[in-house]
Amino acid sequence: MKLLIVDDEPGLRQSLRLLLADEGHDVADAADGAVALARAGAEPFDVILCDVRMATMDGLEFLRRYRAAGGGALVIMMSAYGTEDTAIACMKEGAYDYIAKPFRADEVVLALRKAEEREKLRSEVESLRSALGAGAVSRHIVAESESMLAALDVVARVAPHRTTVLLTGPSGTGKEVLARELHRLSPRAGQAFVAVNCAAIPEMLLESELFGHVRGAFTGAVSDHRGLFEQASGGTLLLDEIGDLPTGLQAKLLRVLEDGEIRRVGDGATRRVDVRVVAATARDLAADVREGRFREDLFYRINVVAISLPPLADRTEDLPVLVRMLLERHARQLGCPLPAVAPDAMRALLSHSWPGNVRELSNVLERAMVLARGGSIALADLPDSVRPQPPRQLRLPQEDLTLRRHTGAAEAAAITEALRRSGGNRRAAAALLGVSLRSLFYKLKTLDLRPDL
């Protein structure tokens, strides 16, 4: 990659230049933000490593001007005076990552490797955008994290084909959004996109809803009815929550997928349909197959291409951009001006575990917009579930005043609180505590804390 190091310390520039050149990168440097702006405007860079505090132009000002001028390189900010507020400010201005000084050489190398992988994925998505022209992947879908970029890459590659796709991921992660994107990028985009939630329709009605019925097929069938497969013929049918499809209908669905024919309830004749099926589920279908709740042959038939959507807690890089996009959407719908987000409110949004994923985030932001005053969302406008709670006061035993005992109790309380805030996600809890995942596991063991906290 082509790198630019921006720092007013000559020794640090020299050290980074040697380190990164040894890693095979093409490295340039600049002693201040003004020089860096001129250089970045004259030649393209893949990644810029920029110090936050510099004499003539600080790193945040450089970042603002660079982005305003259309600069597209990933910017990794560095600072020896960093706080959470500084890191959040950098991310809001468009920084890709933030490294606190002093840092180890392997930290910088790892950050650049992550950036390189992300840019590789982004480049592939952009290539597909160019190749697909007007059908390019929607820029309204937020994808800054490697996991979402990878998912969009698969979407763009599989969209032109009729291949059945299985979308998996927790509720609220945007599976229907991705299904619509598959349809929009496909040759079927001009035809119908039909979605049905298999868990929301009573079993006795679901067969008729999917395949249709003829007049007199059952009490109340006063006329012929076209099912969803017929309505979607030529287009795309999303079978959401397919894991909840009754066993009897699983066999009939398999037959449709294999033969391309449906039979209306009460009809002796079959009808051909041309439907691209996208299935979605929050369940572990492989486990359901093992336990006999889902047909193995149907699982393999729908699992031709699987795309997994990560929970929001695992794609925190997307959150600042996602917050802005959702606020813009709610502002249009509510007829309100677009609000700012106070730093402590943004900090709370970034540290919340989001068990309800994007759907929960959207609801929280809509609520906050309605309650906000003065054009800015404050911490008080967020619900109690999102606002950080004060740590529980430790009750220390009077008979034992040793520092080791008190330190252990404080660590246990902090770990318990971090696990609570992260919804039990240990990787997220380790990030909140500022320790490695391995260190967290060690503390859980030495402090004899329950692993299911």
What's a quick, concise take on this entry?
With 453 residues, the protein is α/β, with parallel strands linked by helices. The protein has helices at 10-22, 33-42, 59-68, 84-92, 105-132, 146-158, 175-185, 203-211, 228-231, 247-259, 285-290, 296-302, 319-334, 343-351, 357-371, 403-421, 426-433, 437-446; strands spanning 2-6, 26-30, 47-51, 74-79, 97-100, 165-168, 193-197, 212-213, 225-226, 236-240, 261-262, 271-272, 276-281, 305-308, 340-341, 376-377.
Q: What would your notes on this structure say?
A:
This protein has 453 residues and is α/β, with parallel strands linked by helices. The chain has three domains: 2-118, Rossmann fold; 137-308, P-loop containing nucleotide triphosphate hydrolases (Rossmann fold, 3-Layer(aba) Sandwich), CATH 3.40.50; 313-381, Helicase, Ruva Protein, domain 3, CATH 1.10.8.60. The chain has helices at residues 10-22, 33-42, 59-68, 84-92, 105-132, 146-158, 175-185, 203-211, 228-231, 247-259, 285-290, 296-302, 319-334, 343-351, 357-371, 403-421, 426-433, 437-446, and strands at 2-6, 26-30, 47-51, 74-79, 97-100, 165-168, 193-197, 212-213, 225-226, 236-240, 261-262, 271-272, 276-281, 305-308, 340-341, 376-377. The strands form five sheets. It has a five-stranded parallel beta sheet with strand order 2-1-3-4-5, with helices on both faces. It has a five-stranded parallel beta sheet with strand order 7-10-13-6-14. Helix 1 links the parallel strand 1 (2-6) and strand 2. The model is unreliable at 131-137 (pLDDT under 50).
